[in-house]
Amino acid sequence: MKRVLKTAWAASLLFSAFGGFGGGSTSVIAAGFNDIENHWAKETITWGQQEGLISGYPDGTFKPNAQVTEAEFVKMMVASFKTEVSEVQSPKHWADAYYYFAESKNYPLKGYQELADRDKPITRERVAEFVVGTVGKNYSGDQAIQYLIGFKLATGKVEGEMTIASFKGQDTLTRGEAAQFIRNLKINNVNYFRTRPYEPSPASGLPLMPSPTQVGLNQIMYVLNTHVMTKFPGYSVRSANHDGHFDTSTVTVIDGKNRNILVTQIEYDPKTKSIVLFHLLESEKEGNVEMTAASVKALGYPVPDNFADTLHTVLKEHKDQRVRAGQWTLYLKPDENLMTRMQIIVE
Questions:
Q1: Alpha-carbon span 281 to 285, nearest angstrom
Q2: How far is the C-alpha of 90 from the C-alpha of 87, rounded, in Å?
Q3: DSSP label at residue 231
Q4: What is the spatial distance between Cα 308 and Cα 112, in angstroms, rounded to a whole number?
Q5: Taking every annotated instance into account, which residue ranges of this chain make up the domain SLH (predicted)?
Q6: C-alpha angle 85/86/89, rounded to 5°?
């Protein structure tokens, strides 16, 4: 006999999505984890904790580099999307309920028949196949990786590269990476599980791999979405890859309530693989200047903490100014005709 439970409740009562798994471990909701300060996934892990998706261990750690087993990943995914599962009365394995759910959706897992496989580390390739299944596609191996990268549901493990090879499909998944996979789905508005087709999806449905220019734009958008837009939720981001028709390509931040209002434009030079200009297009609305200042800092220019105040001053006084930002100088140049506009030129 089975009874239906809300995973959100099951997760909070039995074990958290990223905390203890199965074997009797006790998880905790900590004020902050003591082992993520310098970790690349710190902000994602913090986000997951604030969303109630992540907890750590009794010693205050999260263990972001610890390997994730297949069973742990399945449980993470299902619990994070607050999906209903059925509790098994006499389980053979602590993750039985999650495997029953995954099997009903035809998601590719090794542990359906061999219980021992459930407790082995899961590879990034298998994660790609599973994640692609959750959006209703059936791709395997390199095609699954191509789908994730092409539709911006994942990136490679090598900074500056977005290729199938850089995805490192045979590497095992870490807890930090698992948190990032789930956050990527949330950012891309994947909010429920679709059933994976039983027949392979056609290759014609695969997206093209991003060009070098698009890789740069994707990185800019990723940083903005994960480090800035979470603090300024009233905005959205889009890109324009000119594919060599112009010297630069752009990422634009848009007023989320009125998509016709462009707030900030960021020009990217594919030849130097660097940002050459931030163009503040609309400074009148409250928060626009602060969001732009946060974007500059998040994208690698270590401006002073009062940088937003400096931008306000330059706009008000309508006078050029230069600001040091690490190894760069930012030339703040207000528009000659429009008091609400300013260029931030990277020198």
A1: 11
A2: 9
A3: T
A4: 54
A5: 28-91
A6: 150
